[in-house]
């Protein structure tokens, strides 16, 4: 085998093994808005593209995307934020007509293993309210620092007495 071809094959295999993987998909109510959290594990520094869609009446509707064009009925109500290993969809003025199967699709640039897709069924009456600390928990170093500093804060109170 040609050494150049061999190296190219090895690099392609290594690149394919270093893709993103959706770990969890959750939905909750934040006031009158729906929030869909797409948690993923990213093993590459390549740019990430995403698509949030809903399937209802056996038809897929794109809500917000960097992969394809979003539908007009969602464009003005949808917003997406990206944090470390988390892509969040916010859909304002969420009603029962927005119920359906929501999909998060992720793809890293130059990832040849294909898109990662996860679905969740969203029914308004069954949604929980979003937890206030969910973003803090995503970054466990802040939580760990807070827990480790509690004994120090108690010691300062004791000394000041």
Given the structure, what is the number of helices? 4
Q: SSE order in H/E notation? A: HEEEEHEEEEHH
Give the CATH class of one domain: Mainly Beta
Shape category: globular
Strand arrangement across the biggest beta sheet: 1-2-6-5
Strand element count: 8
CATH superfamily of one domain: Immunoglobulins
Terminal-residue CA separation: 77 Å
Q: Which whole number gives the mean pLDDT? A: 78
CATH architecture annotation name of one domain:
Sandwich
Report the β-strand fraction as a percent range: 35-45%
GO molecular function: GTPase activator activity; integrin binding
Pfam families: V-set (PF07686)
InterPro entries: Ig-like_dom_sf, Ig-like_fold, Ig_V-set, THY1
Subcellular location: Cell membrane
Overview of this structure, please?
The chain is an alpha+beta fold and 161 residues long. Helix content is 28%, strand content 40%. The protein has helices spanning 3-17, 72-75, 134-138, 140-160, and strands spanning 20-30, 33-42, 48-56, 59-65, 78-83, 86-91, 100-108, 116-122. The protein starts with a helix and ends with a helix.
């Amino acid at each position: 085998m040609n050494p150049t071809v061999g190296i190219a094959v090895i690099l392609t295999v290594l690149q394919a093994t270093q893709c993103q993987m959706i770990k969890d998909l959750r939905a909750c109510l934040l006031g009158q808005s729906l929030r869909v959290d797409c948690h993923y594990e990213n093993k590459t520094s390549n740019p990430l593209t995403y698509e949030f869609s809903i399937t209802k009446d056996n038809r897929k509707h794109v809500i917000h995307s960097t992969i394809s064009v979003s539908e007009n009925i969602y464009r003005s109500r949808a917003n997406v934020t990206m944090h470390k290993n988390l892509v969040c969809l916010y859909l304002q003025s969420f009603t029962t007509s927005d119920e359906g199967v929501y999909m998060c699709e992720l793809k890293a640039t130059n990832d040849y293993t294909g898109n990662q897709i996860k679905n969740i069924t969203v029914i308004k009456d069954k949604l929980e309210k979003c937890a206030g600390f969910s973003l803090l928990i995503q970054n466990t170093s802040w939580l760990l620092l807070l827990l480790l500093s509690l004994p120090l804060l108690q010691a300062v109170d004791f000394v000041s007495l």
